Amino acid sequence: MPKPLRMSRRTWVAAGVVLCVAGIASTTALNDSPTPAPQPEKPVSAECAQYIADIETQLAKAKREGNDDGVLSFTRTRVGADDCSDEILDHFNGDR
Hints:
Structural class: mainly alpha
């Protein structure tokens, strides 16, 4: 059975220092890199924009009345209405 290589304490300390310095250098490089440009907002149909405004109105009313528990239920009963689910998720995504 071969003997394991023996390494001195200095070698272990030097290896740890090298790893720490490499980690700090890479973190600094990543922090200094430019941030990507923000994505332009997607256009929203007039019907969806009004629907989002109605939701914000209901949320403001609930907050004024003290019912601000974060839950708001609503339905869309009109036949043939635009599907605004993606636009609603995009608009209120920052509130999560």
